[in-house]
Amino acid sequence: MDCVLVAGGAGYIGSHACKALSKAGYIPVCYDNLSTGWEEAVKFGPFERGDLLDRARIDEVLAKHKPIAIMHFAALSQVGESMDDPGLYWRTNVMGSLNLIEAAVEADIKNFIFSSTCATYGDQDNVVLDENSVQQPINAYGASKRAVENILYDFERRYGLRHVIFRYFNVAGADPEGEVGEYHQPETHLIPLMLDAIDGKRDALTIFGTDYDTPDGTCIRDYVHVCDLVDAHLLGLNWLKDGKQSEVFNLGTGAGFSVRAVVDHSKDVTNKAVPIIERTRRAGDCTQLVSGSTKAESELGWTPVRSNLKAMIGDAWRWHQTGHYSK
Ligand SMILES: NC(=O)c1ccc[n+]([C@@H]2O[C@H](COP(=O)([O-])OP(=O)(O)OC[C@H]3O[C@@H](n4cnc5c(N)ncnc54)[C@H](O)[C@@H]3O)[C@@H](O)[C@H]2O)c1
Fold it and tell me: In sequence order, which residues have a C-beta less than 8 Å from that of residue 150 and are 6 or more positions away?
């Protein structure tokens, strides 16, 4: 069986990718330093503990497992933290990724799949965001991801390392079978924060800004189910294995939901009210971030099937009640 190295495979999205890879007949080798991930999430293949900044350790793991491809999810991804400590983000996300990319070239690995983000587009209200939109990140997190995209363009030109870059919108939901799910500490994502408020793990869900220029005054985002997202990665892997050219794809559904719409839907799913605190706008939040591209559907053949609020909140709620890792 072919191996795929999954950097960040102990994290939220990486663990779902490991499950999907294993189901598809690959051995997912998880490379992770557990800084924000969980050893309990590594269930579908070998675990190689290591840091992106430890080049010798990366070389050792690549030589041992000889993967045919790398899926690179490992990163720090809290916007606020990236503004407080930009050096940490440039070191981990950019220098760490450069290590992994250089190691891939040296080990003669041909296929590289990278988790980028809609945060590389920055704050462009009322602009339809497709893959050709100008990238003007407004925080160090987004800037670090754009920098890695640029490294990949250069390494393809010079060394022929082919890549697929996925720019995710808001990832949500959990494995419907409950084997893995979302558990960030601290949590910054809307749906798990809301579920925490519903079952009393936090006092309330804070809504930042109710005076945006949207139908209900709250920000609008594009949510994609984590299982649909990792399906796109499998298609990206096949794309590269078929010898196709490097590409970048937005991963969003094009449907925007306001914070209030998400909250309203949660009542239908959980039969519980969400305690809410309303606050003024938070710096750096733009009104609307929605993908305006269907390139992943038309070119990769991606068909999101669970990226509706009912399934995303329902799967997250089931995981929330039964799952969770302990550290
Ligand atoms: N969750 C989202 O909505 C979202 C949206 C856009 C982009 N992304 C990107 O997707 C990727 C995965 O996100 P996630 O939500 O699963 O995050 P996560 O924090 O759950 O997973 C990241 C994993 O990377 C590991 N890691 C971090 N630094 C490392 C290092 N120096 N060496 C080795 N391992 C390291 C962590 O321990 C963790 O297991 C990230 O690159 C993130 O920027 C996520």
Answer: none
Gap from CA of 8 to ligand 1 centroid (Å): 6
Rounded (5°) CA angle 206-211-217 = 80
How many other β-carbons are positioned within 10 Å of the β-carbon of residue 319?
A: 23
246 vs 324, residue with greater confidence: 246
SS3 218: coil
Residue-wise pLDDT for 30-43, tens only, equals 999 999 999 999 99
Annotated catalytic residue, options 141, 168, 212, 223? 141
* Assigned CATH class of 3-172+224-251: alpha beta
CA distance 178 to 128: 35
User: What integer pLDDT is reported at residue 286 of this predicted model?
Assistant: 82
Instruction: Provide the pLDDT for residue 322.
Output: 84
Helices and strands in the chain: count of H runs, count of E runs: 11, 13
Of 41, 122, 112, 52, nearest in space to 284 by CA = 122
Q: Is 181 in the pocket of ligand 1 (CB under 6 A)?
A: no
Beta carbon of 13 within 6 Å of any ligand 1 atom: yes
Q: Indicate whether residue 81 lines ligand 1 (CB < 6 A).
A: no
Query: Tokens representing 175?
Result: 């494995």
Question: 327: CA distance to ligand 1 center in Å?
Answer: 17
Task: Check residue 143 and give its pLDDT.
Answer: 96
Note the CATH architecture for domain 190-222+254-322: Alpha-Beta Complex (3.90)
Beta-carbon-side half-sphere exposure of residue 242 (alpha carbons within 13 Å): 11
- Atom number, ligand 1, closest to the C-alpha of residue 77: 43
- Which atom of ligand 1 lies nearest, measured to the CA of 141? 43
Contact (CB, 8 A) for 258 and 219 = yes
Is 51 a pocket residue for ligand 1 (Cβ < 6 Å)?
Answer: yes
Task: Specify whether 31 is catalytic.
Answer: no
Which residue is closest in CA terms to ligand 1's atom 3?
Answer: 171
Answer whether 94 contacts ligand 1 (Cβ < 6 A): no
Mean model confidence pLDDT for the chain: 95
